[in-house]
């Protein structure tokens, strides 16, 4: 397969790709959840692997943090390698009291403070939205497995250390469930290409209480998220 500026495929890429931010998490998923996995990318440390889960071919690739890098990989996976389903598996900061540590949050939509959407030159404000096909399938899995999820709007922010002290509070008042840094760019890139995308998160810290998870606890809740997301490879 031909390479792009950021992906040099040394193995197959499945039509469904899980996209965690952390490349080492991609490696962890490959080693602990996939069968017969082979690495397909190492350019810039954006580790990518393809294997099978319950018999369905699936890839997993780290995107790095933030909309720009996530959108680069999403664009190339879609436009150069024919990827049809992109599923972000990440962490988020809980922004509402009902979103507790380790809870699963799903971005039905993703608000943003990013200027990424300006490239589409739309005569209004674009609302980055998940794929109903993927959300419906995820919800069916969650019901089957008896897992509760918070589904709604998240904030995909370009800014982790915000100079505006009240920025978080203003989004909280709009009912935004959690803060992360990628989903809006992923959804817009998928929408512009007519493919499906979904982002789900485990709540790793609370912007309401200031609590944070330990590494070991994160690992356990992460397993729950993977067991919900990976069956979507069958679609
Ligand atoms: N902000 C942005 N991204 C995050 C956070 C946060 O508080 N927590 C985990 N990812």
Small ligands present: hypoxanthine
Strand content: 25-35%
Unreliable sequence segments? none
Biggest sheet descriptor: 5 strands, mixed, barrel
Quickly count the helices: 6
Alpha-carbon Rg, integer: 17 Å
Quickly give the structural class: alpha/beta
Roughly what percent helix?
25-40%
DSSP summary, beta strand count: 9
The shape is: globular
Quote the distance from N terminus to C terminus.
24 Å
Mean pLDDT, to the nearest integer, reads: 97
Q: Can you list the strand order of the major beta sheet? A: 5-8-7-6-9
Order of helices and strands: EHEEEHEEHEHEHEH
Report on this model:
The protein has six helices and nine strands; from the N terminus they run βαβββαββαβαβαβα. It has 235 residues and is an alpha/beta fold. The two termini are 24 Å apart. The mean pLDDT is 97. Hypoxanthine binds next to β5, β8 and β9.
